[in-house]
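for the writeup, i need someone to sanity check this before i put it in the appendix. the sequnce is what the collaborator sent (i think, or maybe the updated version? ugh). structure was predicted straight from it, no edits. if anything looks off just tell me and ill rerun, i have time this weekend
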Amino acid sequence: MNDTERDELLELAHGYLEGSLDEEQLHDLEVRLDAEPEARRIFVDFTHDHAALHWRQIAEPTDGGIAENMEALSDLQPRRLPTLWQACAAGAIISLLALVLLQSRGETVPRTFAAMDKTESARWESGDLPTSEGVRLHAGILKLTRGLATIAFDSGAEVILEAPAELELVDQMNCLLHSGTAVAEVTEPAKGFRIETPTAEVIDHGTRFVVNVDRGTGATKTQVFDGLVEVKLPDSRESVHLETGQQNFVAGNKLGDVMPEIKEGTWLRAERPLARGPEWKTLTTGDPGGDDSYVWGGRPNDHVSDELLLLKNSQDLAGPHRKAYLRFSLGNIIREQIVNAELSLRFTPTGWGLAALVADSHFLVYGITDDSLDDWTHKTMNWENAPANVLENGTDLLPDKTILLGEFTVPRGVQSGTFGMRGKKLARFLNDDQNRMASLVVVRTTMETRGGGLVHAFASSRHPSLPAPRLIVRLEE
């Protein structure tokens, strides 16, 4: 069944639940369900999702109780119903009927052993499992292209997928991570929970850990936050044990050494760029007189970049903290000519740190009001000499040298896309600028929940393909 046929079937299924199908459409649905096993399974999944979503919305049972409401719907005729409770009951009945339909044809009803507990900014590719929150899951494949998804196994294991990732569910104690990142938390009843990859088997012994699989090579990285994990080669059965604060890398058939964990581990490759689309009059940090940089303070590491502008607010007072600086040359734009303005930043994954350890991320944009501080360069600027910087943390700036211009939020699990802010306050700041060199500072106020949280980044003017930070201004006509 191709995507078009699947969409048509789902539209018919939705119409059936809503009671909006005419006789011809109803006959078409019956023919498809009678002739195609795959169509019957898709119908079962859809009606199951529909029922599950309704059940989740019910706060209290009606006075008549479940039995009375079910009896009132004993004719099983789908139609628009006057109450949410009745719609829920109808959805449950239809889902049960679909299961009976499978069984009557001698087909095995898939056994569920997990649930889609939570999704955050999730976007999916075509897998063979339903993806609605609360839906029960059987064996099959999930393909997550954006955001986060939490799968709760009946055994007591929980797996958070970080996009992009592909996970195959096997049973309540086993899954296959084909690519991407999975953060697992395993309770005592699920001890022995196993994540298999193309190059390794990762076996839990009661712990919290993360597994990453490179999409191109199948190489496996495992890092343990708490407890004990065994990493085993599938062919030779050679293995190592990782304890709290340790990591291991498996490539090909070579079992790597046990090493200390990296707080901001590298977990995925950067995405390909999106095309630039200018609006109004566009200025960039790559224009003559413009510049961009980021500064970092606290504990040093090797996570540095000349092409990306990194942002982080570390849980640890010793860092690493990161703030980004932008300078735009206003050139020959006359003061008071700007009536509106927008700052546009192209975020892209760094691969450093885990998105699961950071909530929805809040960013603030400041303008530097002291023109004497505009004379900086990315080649020499650092944490100590950065304009208006407060050295003690990853968010503060000198209040007498800066003004808050705006804010924006990047949802949890989202690492790419265009974000920024616009408004009259930014326009006024640009109009008031005396030397026609405008310096902005971007900070992330959201702190990681524990060390090793995600490092956000947006492209600098030195990135080979992604658009530089843009200041898009609308001029008075």
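The radius of gyration is 27 Å. The domain at 114-260 is CATH 2.60.120.1440 (Jelly Rolls).
thx in advance!!
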